[in-house]
Amino acid sequence: MADIQLSKYHVSKDIGFLLEPLQDVLPDYFEPWNRLAKSLPELVASHKFRDAVKEMPLLDQSKLAGYRQKRLAHLQLVLITSGYLWQEGEGGAVQRLPECVSKPLWNVSNDLGLKPVLTFADICLTNCKVKNGDIEVMYNLPGGAGTEWFLKVCGLVELAFGKSGQAIQNVLDGAKANDKAKMASGFTDLTAAIGNMQTALARMNENLTPEHFYNGVRPFLNGFGGPASPISGGLVYEGVSDKPVTMIGGSAAQSSTMQVLDGLLGITHSPEKQAFLDEIRNYMPPSHKQMLADLTNMPRKVPQVVAETKDANLTKAFNGCVAAFVQYRSYHIQVVTKYIVTASKSDSPKSLAYKDTGKSDLIPFLKEVRDDTEKVQQ
Ligand code: HEM
Asked: Which residue of 61, 312, 317, 347 is 20 to 30 Å from 164, comparing CA positions?
């Protein structure tokens, strides 16, 4: 059994993949980025954002100090990119990003190993601050309270998962040491955490309507390049290269939570489905991607360890955890049906990242992934 320690991957045992709270703003030198990122919702609503971006000075990102400042800068710059591209809706997108955004975004992305595009790591993991057990959203996309609620609930799901850090570590350590009781207690706690993730996800209904998500939030998460994209030829990052670049859209599918559970519980998918999930990993912070690779490549998988013990208690705890995960994935399919399939009022809904890989069988894909989960029951 490999030795996997969460801390090695910058994953907290209290808040998981969320970034530890950081300053809301960058130092004074970066005030133009602070200002534009904060005023994005109002300036997009009044159609003044693009002009404001064009007037922004070209700043030197090498003046950013340390990892967390760079993550905040990345968040600000991808928000500015999103507002700039989609201010006039999907029909009025532009195909070139001005140098004052593209150059520092490109460079800071290279430093961080992140893609130069809006990702879940930005709008959720960096943007959602844990405060007194709740989530506070620092920067908003256009759309007011409904959009902020979407971002907040994503943060609440991550936080619910994040609290299972010790449980996950107990499963891994217990498996390594053949400690049945430790593993069983890990599974039991993890089952509760997955239930809490579902409770958090259900809160989407409180303040987000399907129409608002589909028409108000989703367009700002669009990627570029590929037949399904409003910018089908890709985006030119001025001052970086004249060759258009292709990126898939931002999506909570870029959350590492479900892929961690897949790796931990030994759930496998067909090569075609795994190819999409692997592609998604390229849009995660490198240390999280590494954790998924190490979990996936564990030589002795957790279900194998459980089976070998022939221990009824442990098997029951493992199966309970798998059942909770199946239920969570089923619930997530209901959410996708409500917010994307029904809201689109069409046979070919514009999904998030999945459509950018040229596929349209969204619900069958999610159902198969859910059914693969069930198969590891013992
Ligand atoms: C309004 C709420 C949501 C909608 C409309 C939604 C939509 C989608 C869609 C369309 C996909 C397919 C891949 C894609 O096209 O991007 C997907 C997959 C996925 N979503 Fe969501 N999602 C929502 C909330 C969440 C939240 C809050 C999380 C976790 C924080 C999450 C985690 C995932 C994961 C991990 C996948 C990959 C498939 C899997 O492993 O089962 N989603 N979602």
From this structure: 312
CA of 268 to the centre of ligand 1 (A): 18
- Is 268 within 8 Å of 297 (Cβ atoms)? no
Q: Which of 123, 149, 251, 283 to mutate to test the pocket of ligand 1 (most atoms within 8 A of CB)?
A: 251
Does the beta carbon of 193 lie inside 6 Å of ligand 1?
no
Round to whole Å and give the CA distance between 54 and 101: 9
Token pair 């609503």: residue: 45
- CA-closest residue to ligand 1 atom 17: 253
**Could you read off the pLDDT of 129-151 as tens digits, one per residue?**
999 999 999 999 999 999 999 99
| Residue 356 token pair | 């950018």
10 is in an annotated binding site: no
Give the pLDDT confidence score for residue 3 in this predicted structure.
Answer: 83
- Would you place residue 159 in the very low, low, confident or very high pLDDT band (cuts 50, 70, 90)? very high
b (16+ CB within 10 A) / e for 123-146: bbbbbbbbeeeebebbbbbbbeee
Instruction: Evaluate: CB of 373 within 6 angstroms of ligand 1.
Output: no
ipTM, two decimals: 0.97
pLDDT higher than 90, residue 226: no
Residue 156 CB–ligand 1 contact under 6 Å: no
Buried b or exposed e, range 31-43, using 16+ CB within 10 angstroms: ebbbebbbebbeb
Report the distance separating Cα 173 and Cα 359, nearest Å.
Answer: 39
pLDDT grade for 6, boundaries at 50, 70 and 90: very high
In the chain, the domains with their CATH numbers are: 6-375 (1.20.58.480)
Burial class of residue 277 (count of CB atoms within 10 Å of its CB; 0-12, 13-18, 19+): middle
Tell me the pLDDT tens digit for each residue of 294-309: 999 999 999 999 999 9
Residue with token string 């971002």? 151
CB-based contacts of 83, cutoff 8 Å, min separation 6: 36, 40, 43, 44, 49, 53, 141, 142, 220
